[in-house]
Amino acid sequence: MKLEVRAQRAGQSLARWLAPLTFTDWSAARVTAELTRAVVAWGVAHGWRVRREVPSLAELPGAHPDRSGYLDVVCERLDGPPIAIEIDQSEKPWSARKLLVEADSGVVPVWVRWGEPPSGTVPEPVALVVFVTTCRAVGPTRRRLYSRTVDQHPQPSAPPAPATEQPPQHAPTRPRCRATTKKGEPCPIDARPSGLCHVHDPAVQCGRLTRKGSACTVPTGGGPCKYHQDQSQSEPAPPLPPWLPDVS
């Protein structure tokens, strides 16, 4: 799957997660802290390992040459590349640069922007999550307070499925080997017609010895495996002296 598609899917999912969040007259620091908490909760709800203030996965240097740049939130996944998320109130070129560098190293980049609707464009493949708030100045110091209601910003809905789309069909489960591993767990390898995998079925193993002296378990139809066949072809036996008969 392309990185742009992964980023857009992550951004749409995160936008739906953040949409129900509402508040009245919060400071900028409190809004950023609550958005960070909600992003962490989103990652945890997906079963990922979530960390905050993580050094750049792409080893991007920070403001000081001897220090790495930091990412606001990183979600590490077993079924895909990690997701790097930056959370900003304003358009920070440094955040865009960090996410682009992470994307070059294969990390999924997502940028959460809150406050006024952004006016500029976000470079691909960075996914933009817009979290619009209203602002008012109070008191003699004109302190800025931020609010958000669901009525003003309804929750985004998931993209509708095409009318011709068929319901997903589950692929038939493939039979697994009936043997157990050394740890006593079911063997995860696909079974052969004999009911065993190539590791547990000696009839389909090479039978030769590896360099470490253990039996080669490469699957074959009988006889030596391709590796040993190629090896025997690449290293032919030396010719016999003319005074010795060839008895092979």
TrEMBL record:
It comes from the Bacteria. Residues 236-248 have a biased composition (Pro residues). Residues 143-185, 217-248 are annotated as: Disordered. Residues 163-172 have a biased composition (Low complexity). This is Uncharacterized protein. It comes from Nonomuraea harbinensis.
